[in-house]
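SAMPLE LOG
Freezer: B-3
Tube label: C17
Construct: single chain, 64 aa
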Amino acid sequence: MIKVKTFGSQLKIFHVKEELQELDNTVNDFIEKNKIERVISVSDATTVNADIGTIGLIRVLAYE
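STRUCTURE (predicted):
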């Protein structure tokens, strides 16, 4: 059965690299803790504010 899990992260100016690494670690920990053997897809989408500035990231993981 295919399952989907979403993860979110705020992006702050000058801290994006660290925040992306933290998001990567969170997703990798989820995969490890749940003993996921088959990842089907990982995709990212950004969230923006009224000024069209990127303020966050949503990562979607599809797995079996």
